[in-house]
Each structure stands twice: as structure tokens, then as C-alpha cells.
Design a protein that fits this description.
Layout (H helix, E strand, L loop, with lengths): L2 H22 L4 H14 L4 H29 L5 H22 L4 H20 L12 H18 L4 H10 L4 H26 L10 E2 L2 E2 H22 L4 H21 L1
Keywords: Cell membrane, Membrane, Transmembrane, Transmembrane helix
Subcellular location: Cell membrane; Membrane
Family: Belongs to the 4-toluene sulfonate uptake permease (TSUP) (TC 2.A.102) family.
Length: 264
């Protein structure tokens, strides 16, 4: 694939990932991981490491994608700080465990797990909302939930918003504040997860030039450049879109991508 075409594809993926992050509070991994799998196949990267490389690279892009989104939401006063502290601590601890576990799984098993993970979020998004309130849930419960979400997220290269947003809604946060708080939580989660994947793949001879462990820098930098701009703009737009519509769009995205990975 020509370098110019490759760069354009990465920039387009970054714009899509950033838009998803800003609007829905997710890290964009649901877009980035499947796309990277296709691109890595075209580039001739070994299938035995392609999924792990896609996951690790996705986590690296999520650091930048969610950073722009989180800052925009924070400036708008939408981040629920008690929930961010309680859930975020568990997410970071889980991310370290998830990156280590992912390195032990075969690539095909990791892909199927990714598809199932996306579909898991669908019923959570379509449940009738609980009465809205501000504040966070019980510290121990949020810490435990963060640990579980963080482990799965780091294993699969998604920011965790796919489960964090529905969880925060079930805790009573309004949709827009759940999106904003999830976006803030994804920054430390993705950072920890990406570092774990670098360590897990360090020195693997199957990796292409331009990779450090299971992080592929040409893809990361191209996607991150576009996602930073798109996520900030989409975060501002999210506060003008009806909350119920955002939830339905979120659920539809999970169904489409989840089924594609499970059936491919």
C-alpha cells in the first residue's frame, strides 16, 4: 500500500475515532481495532501478532483521542469528579492486569472476545434509565466495577467507555455527564494499557519495523493527529444532542461491529 494512501486511511480512522470519543465517551477502539486488522493484513503483518498489535496500537491512540474529548467536557463542567476518582482507580489497576492477560491469548480468541464484549454493552444501553442524580456510587462498588471494565478494556484495545458509560448511567448519572466522566477515565486507563502492551510485545521478532512492542507508531501517530481535533469538536456537539438519541446510536454501533467480528 502506498504511503500516502496509508496515511489518508489512518487520518480518516482518527477522525472517526475522535468523533465517537467526543459524542459517546468511548475511546474509539471499536473503530480503530477492526480497521487496523484489515490494514495490517494488507501490509503483510503476520496474523499471529496482528490482533495484539491492533489492540496495543488502539490503546495508544485512545490516550490522544480521549484527552481532547475529556478536556472539552471538563471545561464545560460535565465531568463528575467523585465518579472519575473512584471508577478511574479501578480502571487503571484493571488495565495493568488486562494487558498482561492479553499477551497470553491466541489472536483468534482475542478477536472473538472483542466481538462478544461489544455486544455485551447493547442491553445495558437500551435498559430504561434510572432516575438521574449527581454524585458517585459507593466507593467499593465503583472500584470493583472499574477493575473489571479496565481488565477487559486493556485486553481488547477499547477505551472502556462501551461499558463505563452504561455503568455510570445505571448509577444515576445523566447521559451527558456519564459520557464526559467516561472520557476522563479513559485517559489513564489507555495510558496504562498501552505501556503494558509495549512491555508484553517487547523484542518479538514477528513485529514490523516501526513497532515498539505491540504498538505500531505509524498508525498511532496518523490516527492520533486527526482524533485530537475531531474529539474536541464532537464533545461540544454532544451537549446539543438529545441523551436518548446518543444511547440508541451507541447501541447500534455496538451491534454492527460486534456481529462483524464474531461472524468474520
Amino acid at each position: 500500500m502506498a504511503v500516502t494512501a496509508q496515511l489518508l486511511i489512518y487520518l480518516t480512522a482518527g477522525a472517526g475515532a475522535g468523533t465517537a470519543a467526543g459524542l459517546l465517551g468511548i475511546g474509539g477502539g471499536v473503530i480503530v481495532v477492526p480497521l487496523l486488522l484489515v490494514l495490517f493484513g494488507l501490509e503483510g503483518i503476520e496474523a499471529s501478532v496482528a490482533m495484539h498489535l491492533a489492540v496495543g496500537t488502539s490503546l495508544g491512540t485512545i490516550v490522544f483521542t480521549t484527552l481532547g474529548s475529556a478536556l472539552s467536557h471538563y471545561r464545560l463542567g460535565a465531568v463528575e469528579l467523585p465518579a472519575f476518582r473512584r471508577l478511574g482507580l479501578g480502571l487503571v489497576a484493571g488495565a495493568a492486569a488486562g494487558a498482561a492477560l492479553a499477551g497470553l491469548l491466541p489472536a483468534e480468541a482475542l478477536k472473538r472476545l472483542f466481538g462478544a464484549f461489544l455486544l455485551l454493552g447493547v442491553p445495558l444501553m437500551l435498559l430504561k434509565p434510572v432516575p438521574e442524580r449527581h454524585g458517585a456510587g459507593r466507593p467499593a462498588g465503583m472500584l470493583a466495577a472499574g477493575g473489571g471494565i479496565g481488565t477487559l478494556s486493556a485486553m481488547l484495545g477499547v477505551g472502556g467507555g462501551i461499558l463505563a458509560v452504561p455503568y455510570l448511567i445505571r448509577q444515576g448519572l445523566p447521559m451527558h455527564r456519564a459520557v464526559a466522566t467516561s472520557a476522563a477515565c479513559m485517559v489513564p486507563l489507555a495510558t496504562c494499557g498501552a505501556l503494558g502492551f509495549i512491555a508484553a510485545g517487547w523484542g518479538d521478532p514477528r513485529l514490523p519495523a516501526g513497532a515498539t512492542g505491540f504498538v505500531y507508531w505509524p498508525a498511532l501517530l496518523g490516527i492520533a493527529a486527526a482524533s485530537l481535533v475531531a474529539s474536541s469538536a464532537a464533545a461540544r456537539l454532544a451537549h446539543r444532542v438529545p441523551a436518548r438519541l446518543l444511547q440508541r446510536l451507541f447501541a447500534l454501533l455496538l451491534v454492527v461491529v460486534g456481529l462483524r467480528l464474531l461472524l468474520s
